[in-house]
């Protein structure tokens, strides 16, 4: 029954949009991400910003904007909407991520902790950053926790799974 529930959960997780067919979902901005916002033709409104713990970023002229949990195109649209509301005529906005928030490795690795995200990194490469497995590690089972639509979703993953910023990788202890 437990295997059935795990399989069912995995199917729901995959169908929820946490992963697409290619294994990637649109990146969701989150607290700790450093971004560059460019408002074309308006140098004073452009700059580098960090998303705070509440998912907000404070921008010149329009103030605090909630972009946490949004993908880049949705965040751009939110900024355009606010700028178009009495400030600019047909604003054009570009957002790019300068520095992603870290991911975390916990459990049976030699150096658990927070690590800088590198695009395209797999669970195996992340474990290598954590100086590999301890002698007690279950080297075949890994749990990944990822925020999907504002909720923490846990799934058992393989070594080839792509890591995203903010993910928490847990390496469990083996029993024998």
Largest sheet: 5 strands, mixed
Number of domains: 2
Distance between the termini: 23 Å
Question: Which descriptor suits the 3D outline?
Answer: elongated
- What structural class do the secondary elements suggest? alpha+beta
Rg, alpha carbons: 19 Å
Quaternary arrangement of the chains shown? single chain
Which CATH class of the largest domain is shown? Alpha Beta
CATH topology group of the largest domain: Outer membrane lipoprotein wza fold like
Helical residues, percent: 10-25%
Kindly state the mean pLDDT as a whole number? 85
What does this structure look like?
It is built from 3 helices and 10 strands. By secondary structure, it is an alpha+beta fold. It has 2 domains: 2-23 and 101-173, Outer membrane lipoprotein wza fold like, CATH 3.10.560; 34-99, 2-Layer Sandwich (wza like fold). The strands form 3 sheets. The protein has a 5-stranded mixed sheet. The protein is elongated, with a radius of gyration of 19 Å.
């Amino acid at each position: 029954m437990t295997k059935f529930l795990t399989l069912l959960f995995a199917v729901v997780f995959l169908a929820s949009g946490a992963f697409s067919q290619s294994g990637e979902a649109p990146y969701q901005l989150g607290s700790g991400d450093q971004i560059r916002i460019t408002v074309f033709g308006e140098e004073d409104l452009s700059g580098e910003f960090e998303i705070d713990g509440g998912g907000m970023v404070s921008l010149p002229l329009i103030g605090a904007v909630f972009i946490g949990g949004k993908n880049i195109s949705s965040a751009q649209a939110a900024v355009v909407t606010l700028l178009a509301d009495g400030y600019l005529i047909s604003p054009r906005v570009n957002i790019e991520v300068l520095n992603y928030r870290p991911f975390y490795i916990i459990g049976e690795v030699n150096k658990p902790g927070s690590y800088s995200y590198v695009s395209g990194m797999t669970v195996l490469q992340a474990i290598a950053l954590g100086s590999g497995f301890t002698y007690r590690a279950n080297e075949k089972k890994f749990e990944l926790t990822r925020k999907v639509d504002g909720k923490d979703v846990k799934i058992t993953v393989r070594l080839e799974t792509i890591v995203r910023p903010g993910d928490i990788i847990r390496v469990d202890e083996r029993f024998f």
